[in-house]
Amino acid sequence: MGVTPVAAYVPGHARPPGALSVVPLDVLEVLPSAIRVPRLTVVDVRGDPVLSGTDRLRSDPGRGGGPLSTRTMEETARAFALTNVAWCARRLLDVVETYLKTVLPSLRILIGTHEKGARRWGGGHYRLPASSYSELPEPSPVDVPGEVHLGSGRAYVHHDGARYLHAPGHNVALVSHEVAHHVCRHIGDLRLNRLRPPRQQTNHRTAVEEGTCDYLAAAMIGHPDIYGWHREHVPISDPRRRCLSAPWTMADFRGGHDADPHADGSIWACALWEARSRAGEAGHPGESVDRLLIDGLADLGREQGVARSPESRRARRYYGTLLSRMLGACTDAALAEHLERVMAARGIRPGWSNARARDVARGFG
Ligand SMILES: [Zn+2]
């Protein structure tokens, strides 16, 4: 089909979810319930057809659709989710692939998963095939390169003075976060899944990965309050809001099996965001920090011979390890100094373990 105008929310100056726009998308094929673009397929798995030829590619978001909306609004909301998800996923993948001059393995994104009967799901996650899943079991085999799963949406938010169903496929930041896990898996491979049997990979993610995904989501929407749209009721000072303009330092780091990697990861994400926001002080645009992060991940992904050393495997969890790789990839002294200074103010130092950084930040070092 080639480049086709489709409907999507474009982030920027508009309030979340973004400005409703018509954007160009390289479409390979339109199926009744799916859209195929290069190395990405987005499927609505709820059974009935959503698209008919190219007719529905510029659908209205229908205020998210949902059980309280009209049938027409529900249909257009589902069609809109397909094009919106395809566009914002491709946007992040394009940044990474263009910069690294590589292509990532194909990604499948399923919308309407993990729902039984009337029970709806309002979340999203990235899944790799595993021997078991800690929650939400998989009814059918997961693609070996990885899949993003999105629910239909459960909660309503206020938008433009009226009710709007928070459909995960309408939320650019949420979709970008999940697609960023695909980038982490195949560029940085932080959990060394490439060394595991393809159907026995791990879905346990570390804080450094969650923070990296939050940062890439913020870079994609150009704003630190990535979840402000659907977590408006959570105060900005609450770690669950995951706002990247928060002041978290390594003194707030918890670590361990009981800690939420998303909350701990916010420290890393906030430090990166501050480096990006103030990159002008070092004479660079904010995007140069995105590039250093991608370079740092790629450097970790190329690391050989780590399988036999428990310590070097553990070190892949440390913010200090990824920071070292970013600094190693940096060819500009002013930018490296800027990054190191911003990170140090949060207690993150090159090469340090998270526990050491936390202890020093709390004054026990
Ligand atoms: Zn995540």
Which helices and strands, and how do they pair?
Layout: E1 2-10, E2 19-27, E3 29-31, E4 34-37, E5 40-44, H1 71-100, E6 107-111, E7 124-127, E8 147-150, E9 156-159, E10 162-165, H2 172-188, H3 207-221, H4 261-277, H5 287-302, H6 310-315, H7 319-329, H8 333-345, H9 354-361
Parallel strand pairs: 5-6, 6-8
Antiparallel strand pairs: 1-2, 3-4, 4-5, 7-8, 9-10
Helix pairs in contact: 1-2, 2-3, 2-5, 3-4, 4-8, 5-7
The structure holds zinc ion (ZN).
Q: What this model shows, in words?
A:
The protein has 365 residues and is α+β, with helices and mostly antiparallel strands. It has 2 domains: 1-204; 205-365, Orthogonal Bundle (Neutral Protease, domain 2), CATH 1.10.390. It is 36% helix and 14% strand. It has 9 helices and 10 strands. It has helices at residues 71-100, 172-188, 207-221, 261-277, 287-302, 310-315, 319-329, 333-345, 354-361, and strands at 2-10, 19-27, 29-31, 34-37, 40-44, 107-111, 124-127, 147-150, 156-159, 162-165. The strands form 3 sheets. Strands 3-4-5-6-8-7 form a 6-stranded mixed sheet, covered by helices on one side. Strands 1-2 form a two-stranded antiparallel ribbon. Strands 9-10 form a two-stranded antiparallel sheet. β4 and β5 (40-44) form a beta hairpin. The chain is globular, with a radius of gyration of 20 Å.
